[in-house]
């Protein structure tokens, strides 16, 4: 397939390629390791986004430092190898890891929380490590090192160091440190405790609504209709989109830089555009686009199930789907083309 200029399509392809590479790694002898996109580990110079909110992640795996006079909050520890990069970024901005008092995450997948155990050690200094706070339904996944994940729990390449959670969060709860309050919005589906964080950043005397999107994509092979380990998946996705649509947004951020076009906005910021990350229209169109993707995938899976159960189905012929990657089952009907692959 030729490269696409559509960031969403590129992101989908990148995620699929990562999963395929991980599947290939599965055939290799131990130790098993999920494939890592180079953009996940290539550093980006740290910078202040607005007010007391800073970017300390890589070119695609986002990590945020929110500073206060009584210590700092960090969102996302990322891969097991990421804490060293995050530490360098925090220190380049003039802060210290032991000043971090609270660690939060976007969701309990290895690319956003595998580094938590190591990162908490870096925050310890001579005092207690930061408090680790996680949304309720993601807590068993984090504390089992990924084994409790409904989709990837039996895939060794997706597991990570198990880490104890100090505070279990619930939808709408707040996390406060000194003069800063973050709100945890449960936007589940991608994981069962996927969390979108909001806060207000004061920039030039003006309050700006910040939204850090947790993860609105339906990964390949998710069963939206009748996954016995996650029967409410589709309802959770739908509720998540209602929540995302209701949030006021000036500054649009997320768990991956690609969600919000990080690299282009970073370039504009470096060139002197102080409001490069103010993008309410980009936020609205991103949420609407991902909701459309979810609804199309749900409709596709419902149709596939109807076709599977139809007495007219003549063959289960393996074929390649619209992405060109995965073999699925063809549901060709007598005298009609397959509704899934048009063959
Ligand atoms: Zn994820
Ligand atoms: Zn991710």
Question: In terms of topology, how is this protein built?
Answer:
Elements: H1 7-26, H2 38-41, E1 47-50, E2 53-55, E3 64-68, E4 71-75, H3 82-92, E5 100-104, H4 110-113, H5 116-124, E6 131-135, H6 139-143, E7 167-169, E8 174-177, E9 180-186, E10 195-203, E11 206-213, H7 233-246, E12 251-254, H8 262-270, H9 280-309, E13 317-320, E14 327-330
Parallel strand pairs: 4-5, 5-6, 6-7, 11-12
Antiparallel strand pairs: 1-2, 2-3, 3-4, 8-9, 9-10, 10-11, 13-14
Helix pairs in contact: 7-9
Characteristic terms for this protein:
disordered N terminus; binds zinc ion; Metallo-beta-lactamase, Chain A; seven-stranded mixed β-sheet; 14 strands; five-stranded mixed β-sheet; 31% helix; alpha/beta; 343 residues
Order of helices and strands: HHEEEEHEHHEHEEEEEHEHHEE
Low-pLDDT parts are: 1-13, 22-31, 314-337
Question: Structural class, please?
Answer: alpha/beta
The CATH top-level class label of the largest domain: Alpha Beta
- Averaged pLDDT: 87
What fold name goes in the CATH topology slot of the largest domain? Metallo-beta-lactamase, Chain A
Counting DSSP H or I runs of 4 or more residues, the number of helices is 9
Rounded radius of gyration (Å)? 21 Å
Give the total of beta strands. Answer: 14
How is the main sheet built?
7 strands, mixed
Taken from the alpha-carbon principal axes, the silhouette is: globular
Strand content: 15-25%
Supply the CATH architecture of the largest domain.
4-Layer Sandwich
Count of folded domains: 2
Helix proportion range: 25-40%
Bound molecules: zinc ion
CATH superfamily of the largest domain: Ribonuclease Z/Hydroxyacylglutathione hydrolase-like
Strand ordering within the main sheet: 1-2-3-4-5-6-7
- From the N-terminal CA to the C-terminal CA, the straight-line distance is 19 Å
């Amino acid at each position: 397939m030729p490269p696409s200029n559509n960031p969403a399509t590129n992101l989908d392809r990148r995620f699929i390629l990562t999963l395929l590479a991980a599947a290939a790694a599965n055939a290799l002898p131990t130790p098993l390791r999920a494939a890592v996109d180079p953009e996940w580990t290539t550093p980006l110079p740290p910078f202040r986004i607005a007010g007391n909110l800073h970017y300390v992640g890589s070119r695609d795996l986002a990590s945020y430092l929110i500073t206060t006079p009584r210590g700092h909050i960090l969102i996302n520890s990322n891969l097991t190898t990421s804490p060293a990069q995050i530490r360098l970024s925090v220190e380049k901005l003039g802060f210290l890891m032991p000043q971090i008092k609270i660690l939060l995450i976007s969701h309990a997948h290895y690319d956003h929380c595998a580094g938590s155990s190591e990162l908490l050690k870096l925050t310890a200094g001579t005092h207690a490590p930061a408090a680790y706070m996680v949304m309720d339904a993601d807590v068993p996944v984090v504390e089992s090192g990924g084994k409790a994940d409904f989709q990837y729990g039996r895939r060794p390449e997706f597991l990570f160091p198990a880490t104890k959670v100090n505070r279990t969060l619930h939808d709408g709860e707040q996390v406060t440190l000194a003069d800063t309050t973050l709100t945890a919005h449960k936007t589940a589906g991608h994981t069962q405790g996927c969390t979108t964080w909001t806060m207000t950043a004061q920039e030039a005397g003006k309050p700006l609504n910040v939204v850090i999107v947790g993860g609105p994509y339906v990964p390949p092979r998710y069963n939206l209709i009748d996954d016995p380990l996650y029967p409410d998946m589709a309802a959770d996705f739908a509720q998540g989109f209602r929540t995302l649509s209701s949030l006021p947004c000036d500054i649009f951020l997320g768990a991956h830089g690609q969600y919000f076009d990080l690299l282009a906005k970073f370039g504009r910021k470096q060139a002197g555009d102080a409001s490069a990350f103010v993008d309410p229209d980009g936020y609205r169109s991103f949420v609407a686009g991902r909701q459309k993707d979810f609804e199309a995938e749900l409709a596709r899976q419902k149709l596939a199930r109807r076709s599977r159960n139809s007495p007219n189905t003549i063959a289960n012929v393996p074929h390649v789907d619209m992405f060109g990657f995965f073999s699925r089952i063809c549901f060709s009907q007598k005298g009609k083309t397959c509704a899934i692959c048009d063959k």
